Amino acid sequence: MERGYHAAGRGTLHGSLDFFTHSFRGAGTHIDFHAHPNLEVVYYAQGAGTTQIGDASFDYYPGSFAVILPNMKHNEYRLEDTEVLFFSFSGDLGIGEFAHGLYADRNRRLEALLRAMSEELAGKRRHYDIALHGLLYQAVAEVARSTGTAEKTGRSEKVKYAVNYMNQYLAENIDLQAIAQNLGYSYDHFRHFFKRETGYSPTQFLLRRRVDKAKRLLVDTDRPMTDIASECGFGSAPQFSMLFARLTGTAPRDFRKLSRIR
Predict the structure, then answer these.
(1) According to CATH, where is 1.10.10.60 located in the chain?
(2) Within a 10 A sphere around the Cβ of 173, how many other Cβ atoms?
(3) What's the confidence (pLDDT) of residue 154?
(4) Which residue, of 61, 144, 159, 245, is most buried by count of CB atoms within 10 Å of its CB?
(5) Which intervals hold domain HTH araC/xylS-type (predicted)?
(6) Contact (Cβ atoms closer than 8 angstroms) between residue 141 and residue 26
(7) DSSP secondary structure string, 109-135?
(8) Contact at 8 Å (CB) between 30 and 78?
(9) How far is the C-alpha of 128 from the C-alpha of 148, rounded, in Å?
(10) Which among 70, 85, 4 is positioned nearest to 35, based on CA atoms?
(11) Model confidence over 92-114: pLDDT tens digits?
(12) Which class is 2-150 in CATH?
């Protein structure tokens, strides 16, 4: 049995329900990696299995739910027969950010709201679409309450991932917008919370990391400027010299000479 709903263009003041389904999925079945353009919430009312969201894997259980950010790849493997209530929504409902992952619906309030949505779909009484959107607001608020304590942690982990990636691939052409997209954010959103946690925008942070590495090579080795520029991820020796001087106030050759005089 499966009940489904596709939005017909009607929205609330700030957001809309895009999709809802209540389904039963058999043990041993699975869904391969896929992604959707809007934020998704997958509620596991019964059953057990695994789901991978981005790079993280989770074991779901009755009363748990997954939050999946827009365009984030995820899959699902069912070890037991599983009852799923799933919805996605778009727009700004005034809640703020969400962190992807698996969470517990400890008091089963979210489940009650989702079952009420399923009943509205089944009955289709007069003004059921208005009732659905009212329940959507309550459901999203409940998701925010359940995940709020993990929100800052989730962002911090994403910043750590970005920093580690920059450090690991410092010599390569790093696409910061692609990093943001892989983490499930627009670049502007990613830049905002990255700067809030590090004090620098991603571009500024990356440049400082490259210059810091260049300083060590200038002091500890006699390698030519072209080699240092390449190893630190600069496009050319002139670009390296210009950006190094802009950040430190000293040209690379002068920095090397001064460090050795001391």
Answers:
(1) 169-262
(2) 7
(3) 57
(4) 159
(5) 160-258
(6) no
(7) HHHHHHHHHHHHHHH--TTHHHHHHHH
(8) yes
(9) 30
(10) 70
(11) 655 556 778 888 887 899 999 99
(12) mainly beta
Tabulate helix, strand, coil % of the chain (nearest 5).
45, 25, 30
Homologous superfamily of domain range 169-262? Homeodomain-like (1.10.10.60)
Residues of each domain in the chain carrying CATH 2.60.120.280: 2-150
As given in the structure block, the two tokens for residue 236 are 């050319």
Can you read off the two tokens belonging to residue 130? 């208005």
E strand or H helix that includes residue 103? strand 101-104
Residue 10 binned pLDDT confidence (cut-offs 50, 70, 90): very low
- Using alpha carbons, select from 198, 201, 203, 208 the residue that is nearest to residue 232: 208
pTM of the model: 0.55
Which residues contact residue 97 at a Cβ distance below 8 angstroms, ignoring those fewer than 6 apart? 151, 155, 189, 193
Residue entry with tokens 């400082």: 208
pLDDT tens for each residue of 187-196: 887 888 788 7
The C-alpha atoms of residue 118 and residue 116 are separated, in whole angstroms, by: 5
**Percent of the chain residues topping a pLDDT of 70:** 88
User: Residue 12: its pLDDT value, please?
Assistant: 37
Bridge partners (DSSP) of residue 83 are: 24, 46
Contact criterion met (CB below 8 Å) for 51 and 74: yes
Buried b (16+ CB within 10 A) or exposed e, 14-39: ebbbbbbbbeebeeeeeeeeeebebb
Q: Structure tokens of 92?
A: 């700004």
Asked if pLDDT for residue 9 goes beyond 50, the answer is no
